[in-house]
Write a structure and sequence with these properties.
Shape: globular
Bound molecules: 1-(2,5-dioxo-2,5-dihydro-1H-imidazol-4-yl)urea
EC number: 4.1.1.97
Number of helices: 10
CATH architecture of the largest domain: Orthogonal Bundle
Subcellular location: Peroxisome
Strand content: under 5%
Distance between the termini: 11 Å
Protein name: 2-oxo-4-hydroxy-4-carboxy-5-ureidoimidazoline decarboxylase
CATH class of the largest domain: Mainly Alpha
Structural class: mainly alpha
InterPro entries: OHCU_decarboxylase, OHCU_decarboxylase-1, OHCU_decarboxylase_sf
CATH superfamily of the largest domain: Oxo-4-hydroxy-4-carboxy-5-ureidoimidazoline decarboxylase
Catalytic activity: 5-hydroxy-2-oxo-4-ureido-2,5-dihydro-1H-imidazole-5-carboxylate + H(+) = (S)-allantoin + CO2
Length: 174
C-alpha cells in the first residue's frame, strides 16, 4: 500500500485498517487521522508515538491494560485478536511446557498485582525464554519505569503491525 493510498482514506476506512495497530485502542488511529497527509510510514509511526507520549500517566496505563496477557486466559480460550494470536504464536507461547506456563502465569499475576496493568513485551522480537527472563527482571522495577518500558514495547508491536498492513494490504487498485 502506498502512502498516497493511506492519505486518500476517509476516517472510517483509516480506522478500519489501522484501528488495531495498538491493541484494542482504535481511538489512537482515529485521532491520528487528523494528522494526514502523512509523508511516509515513519510519519504515521511518529504521529502515533507522539499521541501516546503526550497521554497522561493514566492514559499510558490504559493502553497497557488493553493488552491481553501472554499465554493468558484469552489465549487459552482462543479469544485473542488475530494480530495477538499470530504474535504470541511467533514467540512460541503456544508451545509452553506445563512448567513454563505455570511460571509465566505466576509472574504475570505478580506483575499485574504490583502495577495494575499486564506485562507487555513485543512478542515478535522475543522468544519465550527471553519473555520469561524479561518478566522476571521487569517485575522488580518501579511503576514509573514499567509504565514507560511497557509503552515502548507497545510502540514496537505497533510498528510491526503498521509495516504488515503497508506491505500486505493491496490498497487502491492501480
Ligand atoms: N502482554 C503482551 O505483551 N501481549 C502481547 N505482546 C505482543 O507482541 N502481542 C501481544 O498480544
Amino acid at each position: 500500500m502506498k502512502i498516497e493510498d493511506v492519505n486518500a482514506l476517509d476516517s472510517d476506512a483509516f480506522i478500519s485498517l489501522f484501528g488495531n495497530i495498538v491493541e484494542n485502542c482504535s481511538l489512537i488511529a482515529a485521532a491520528i487521522w487528523s494528522s494526514r497527509p502523512f509523508s511516509d510510514v515513519d510519519d504515521i509511526q511518529n504521529q502515533l508515538n507522539k499521541f501516546i507520549d503526550l497521554l497522561p500517566r493514566n492514559g499510558k496505563e490504559g493502553i497497557l491494560r488493553n493488552h491481553p496477557d501472554l499465554a493468558g486466559r484469552l489465549a487459552a480460550a482462543g479469544q485473542l485478536t488475530r494480530e495477538s494470536t499470530q504474535e504470541q504464536k511467533a514467540a512460541g507461547l503456544d508451545t509452553l511446557t506445563a512448567e513454563e506456563k505455570e511460571k509465566l502465569n505466576k509472574l504475570n499475576t505478580e506483575y499485574k498485582a504490583k502495577f495494575g496493568f499486564p506485562f507487555v513485551i513485543c512478542a515478535r522480537e522475543n522468544k519465550k525464554d527471553a519473555i520469561l527472563k524479561g518478566l522476571e527482571h521487569r517485575v522488580q522495577n518501579d511503576l514509573e519505569t514499567e509504565t514507560l518500558t511497557g509503552v515502548e514495547e507497545v510502540k514496537k508491536i505497533c510498528r510491526l503491525r503498521l509495516l504488515d498492513i503497508m506491505e500486505n494490504h493491496p490498497g487502491a487498485k492501480l
